[in-house]
Request: fold
Amino acid sequence: MLQEVLSEQLSNIINYKIANNELSEIRIRRNKPIVVFMKGQPYYICEKGLTCSLDNAIFATKEMIDDIVYKASDYSIYSVNEQIKQGYIMLENGIRIGLCGSMVIENNQVKTMINWTSLNIRIPHAIKNCSLCCFDDIVSENGVKNTLIISPPGAGKTTFIRDFVYQLSEHNYCLNVTVIDERGEIGGGENSGINLGNFCDVISYCTKEQGFIQAIRSMNPGLIVTDEIGTEKDCESLINAMNSGVKVVATIHASSIEELRRKKFFEKLPVCYFERYVLLSNREGPGTYEGTYNEKFSKIVKW
Amino acid sequence: MTVILILLIIFCFGLIGYKLSAFYISRKKFFSSLEILMSNLELDVSFSKDKLKNLILKNSENLNSKELVEFCKKYFELLDKKQKLDFELVNEIKILKKEEKDLIFLFFNSIGKLDAYSQSKEIKMYQNKVNEYYLQASDECKKYAGLYIKLGIIFGILICLLII
Reply:
């Protein structure tokens, strides 16, 4: 899918000259060299593959950026405009293209984005067993604990919850899990081939508010998993779910527990609601496990 | 034997006349079908918001013009392969004039690159221009389509008279 949206030149380089499975991000900025991130390290792209020198790096043009966006939308910008308004386009397999450009605003509402200047193509990777480091902290005999996964952007939150959902099924917890996948990143869309286990239902491309209501009403979930809570409305949806007897595993952007507690909307979320906090970082590459904390924000020490 | 020969000559020239008039009939059909396609696209872009390739496939099935159906088929294949429209594809539509080909190329090249509201407005703009072409093609069809058939038959009769 990624190859289909990139230009032939880029596609050939990425396909044949770069270790595809280590590629996590492609940054394309107008009139700037194209940068790829492999295992968290940035490199320029040149005809021969990767380079650290600017001399032979390939520079992105306006046409190149436009072309990628048009192809990503299947030449149907109008059909993905709701995503564009939020700054991204999702491809199959959970690949997300983040967009920067000029927002068109009318009556205080974003209508669309035009004149794209930067793209951030994020390629998800399933890292098997990455959630096992704290699986026993989150899951006990009584079931799954309400858990918040904390990490800065690009540190493996989505990969973690994807694996966590899969592991529940692998460990024979016959728990109905509903994933509310606002941007299609967790499940990766209908033809993604991402395996979330045998007890998982995915509601894609809806807001968390709508997703939580729909899940509780119609899917009878034991656990709801969602990505990137960031607004008061998201918090309200979480509280409603928890008050309905449903367990929740969610992720949030923050680089430490202190940073999390400083978040304004987080103050509205009563502390006792979450029983576990899992902290991830980029310290030794994306997905570095920093520890699990209990409801009182004390680190759980393992013997 | 003579009667059969006369009828054959008249039929042949009539057929030539019909073939010449078919050009104008095809042009008229092409623009009327294009207008229908555009108004369907405009509706679908605003409401169903399905991908362009699906809309092209769905809306081109029942069109009257075989040239436009053929073009849409090839255009769909390009979209399916995520390839850009090439002017050569429009150039293959032999019944169109240069200026008309340019407009059609511009239309199919620009569609799908805007949000629903702007796209709908743009389609309407192109639709107005296509409507002008349709009216022109209609007038030409009225004037010339019948004329060529009549001329063909008359020419056939003249030839027969000369032979006899």
Chain A has a mean pLDDT of 88. The first helix of chain A runs from residue 2 to 5. The domain at 2-122 of chain A is CATH 3.30.450.90 (Beta-Lactamase).
